[in-house]
Amino acid sequence: MPDQIPLYIDGEFKQSNTNDWIEVTNPATNAVIAKAPVTLDSEMAEAIASAKLMFQCWKEVPTPERARLMLKYQHLLKEHHDELATLLSSETGKNLADAKGDVWRGIEVVEQAANISSLMMGETVENVASDIDSYSLIQPLGVCCGITPFNFPAMIPLWMFPMAIAAGNTFILKPSEQVPLTAMRLAELFEQAGAPKGVLQIVHGGKEQVDYLLSHPDIRTISFVGSVPVAQYIYQTGTHHFKRVQAFAGAKNHMVVMPDANKAQVINNLVGSSVGAAGQRCMAISVAVLVGDAKAIIPELKVAMAKVKPGSPDNAEAAYGPLISPQAKQRVLRLIEEGKQQGATCELDGSQCEVDGFPGGNWLAPTLFSGVTTEMSIYQQEIFGPVLVCLEVETLDDAIALVNNNPYGNGTSIFTACGAAARKYQHQIQVGQVGINVPIPVPLPFFSFTGWRGSFYGDLHAYGKQAVRFYTETKTVTARWFDEDIPDGPNMTIHLR
Length: 497
Hints:
One of its GO terms (biological process) is thymine catabolic process. By secondary structure, the protein is of the alpha/beta class.
């Protein structure tokens, strides 16, 4: 029988009493590798109560001590980096290179959490009025919650709970029911680093468990990453219950290619950024906007994409792994077929992909469309597969208008040798993360992950300074002391303890 994944409540890994279990499968074979519990309401309540009780102690722990916990944690994560990547690849299907990158980007956020002392500093103004000073204090909120997706089971949980806990909060994590194993190992290492019981809790399940978290009065914040419909639901429901919410949603990331761009760099980066991780990442480049004569690269782009092959995680020659589930594969196949029916030219069709030795896997080979228009479903919808669509425009202004008219605003890139074109693009484009001759402009953790428009619902973003503001509240103190109350002379009394 597959292993039954435990809950992590009040510092203990305990089996759920549920009779309802969710199968966890290996996407390369679709074999069941574990079962995750659908957490009972009583167990959800226990986790929240433990987190609430622990918050009263944890918020009083000195900030440097909380930072030292994160220093120990990042050391353990680095020590177990390859082990975590192997585990992660077994439940996501990612090849080891992608899995290692997933873990490493999470470690970078934990390193930033170790810098929490300087990030928790308030501000002071002396003499805002006669003999009156004002200063602000940054204080934690309470019990925070994270709901994470399947595609980055190490990185995205590590975006959330280390920053929240370092800031003095306690945290409840509900990982994707498709990939719960990595989260449990992260918790084991966190405990090993010295995290006190109750600081982190992990529960499992589906929509009912999410709704429980969204509506519970003791949870102060909700952090979410996932699809557009679910992000909208999370944001609307969470704010309806008066919670602070950050909900990262879908994307349709464009790479604008100018005629003067380095052709070899453009092709290499388009291939890697569109099909890497099987296209299952919110920062994947899924649209190439070819300006003027840049459309001439399509034949060479097709040749380069055709050389890229998916394969099992242990195949060092495989460029990427399978899609997460048969349902995900069927959705991408449907969109590919719609692209053909709606008049796009399918330059390269990966629909009939097979991988030797893994007949049951959710495989798709790279797929390339040209002649795409903005009315087609392959342009309008986030495909979340190894599919690249090409649109052609005449000018940079046309490209900017096209990108700005798209409802999403997660990431975009421009490839050009012209500094003025790059400057104009970065200034006028209405997208949160911009790359210049960089295909996937994910910021390092001392900045923040800043999706805009339909890619994000909320006000404060993940990691960096914005995350600290999201997980804390500001208290302003105005103080006045009177000179005549200063003790001096022979009547001064000194109390020594």
